[in-house]
Amino acid sequence: MPRPLRDFSRLCIHTITTKPWSIEEAIDRYAAAGVKGITVWRQWLEGRDIARAGENVRAAGIEVVSLCRGGFFPATDAAARRAAIDDNLKAIDEAEALGAGLIVLVCGADPNQPLDESRRQIFDGIAAVLDRAEQANVRLGIEPLHPMYADSRSAVNTLRQANDICDQLGSPQVGVVLDVYHLWWDPELKSQIERCGRSDRILAFHVCDWKTPTEDMLNDRGLVGEGCINVPQIRGWAEDAGFDGFIEVEVFSNRYWAMDQLEFLNRVKDAYLKHT
Amino acid sequence: MPRPLRDFSRLCIHTITTKPWSIEEAIDRYAAAGVKGITVWRQWLEGRDIARAGENVRAAGIEVVSLCRGGFFPATDAAARRAAIDDNLKAIDEAEALGAGLIVLVCGADPNQPLDESRRQIFDGIAAVLDRAEQANVRLGIEPLHPMYADSRSAVNTLRQANDICDQLGSPQVGVVLDVYHLWWDPELKSQIERCGRSDRILAFHVCDWKTPTEDMLNDRGLVGEGCINVPQIRGWAEDAGFDGFIEVEVFSNRYWAMDQLEFLNRVKDAYLKHT
User: Fold this and answer.
1) How far apart are CA B185 and CA A115, in angstroms?
2) Quick one: B31 exposed, middle or buried, by C-beta within 10 A (0-12, 13-18, 19+)?
3) Which of A26, B18, B168, B199 would be a feasible disulfide site paired with A21, CB 3.0-4.6 Å?
4) CA of A147: how far to CAs of A188, A223, B36, in Å?
5) Do B147 and A146 touch (CB under 8 A)?
6) For residue range A14-45, what is the model confidence (pLDDT) as tens digits?
7) Cα(A129)–Cα(B148) distance, rounded to whole angstroms?
């Protein structure tokens, strides 16, 4: 087991976690609560001066941990694949303007073509934006998604696959994002995290919990401690593999989005210290 | 790609697929439709003379392919684990009476304990009933379940795991059940099916499809052809690995259970010939 978390110096929250709040409100509320990191979802930047938004975050004493999300490379027709690459190039521009050193890649999948084909297109898509990412000094983090999203959200469904892609690309610009919700069930998780460590490629660590029963495949995640994932054990594996960055709370939950967000933020902090 | 299916000589249907029908009605309807195999869920035998039910199936020209389902071994307390073993022994008695040569194991998981512990208890549970299964000449088929069921239905979530358990048990009485719904996403699927073939341990093959979107984690499966699973490809891999048994249609679907079951049975047959 890893060392207990005793303060909020490594706590990062995703703007999607407090979905009812705008970026401005999130910055104010997180800063007042002592939260030290933020991962910004791209929708929160629509209609904003992105560079100024980044300055506002830093002026509040908060670090921009990552921009969420790039990816969604696969498609049956070439024009759509080209549009996806263009959108990822735009995301790199946005990350650069925001001052985010990392883009989280939800790699995509198209149910109208074989999984293998989606997997090839993901590789090609990342390769196509790699030069621009290097130039902008923005790293790309492949986030393996739970196999229940293999039809339409990501054809990268295990950490082994993400490690294989990284090995094949062979660029220090590309690494992996660990999310306990997607990975907890995998019998190979410990050994694949160790493999990440040998290449120093763990770029981010996302937490939430798996509830029993889970009533919605997308928006029924729990706070850490509410479910069956042994988050401290997985955090320990990541830290043994050299990871010492932010612990990012990413919770999609219709239930939590419906409640008072200040009260919810207190629960997030409580779950962070007690169960993470 | 495997050879097309041109008749119903290998078509088996699970009683749960036509849930509104009793065992008696299912036997009559399947026989009239030319279906040659049936997998009987245990609930369908409640209050019945099981040996006579088996005779009725065979008298209708139908083979009993398997009894569904044993397993659910893990639990936090020892008394519950003992009760699970007793229930599996009872299932073996039932399979013997019914004339089923196979019990499908949905191995179980308990969200209140670590996954590793559930996995150990599954191994111990199967080992505890093995002698009785041999004596009854009933084989036990470990069915890996989709990782979205790892919290409470099965801690065996990949074919690699099922193969590992079989290797460790080292008994020809134990093999695996392939279900495309649970396995289709796995990048290792082809190589692990080949591994099954080397040990001649594919005991059954279940089909349905993964719909996009899937609206219910349990009861929104599609007929083959309605979703994104490449069923013929996976069937080809299984047949290349030596499998030549029944193709079992196992569809949990609130939508289909609500419709006229005779019309549904025609759709099952149509999907079988056209898309499987």
Assistant:
1) 8
2) middle
3) A26
4) 14, 21, 33
5) yes
6) 999 999 999 999 999 999 999 999 999 999 99
7) 32
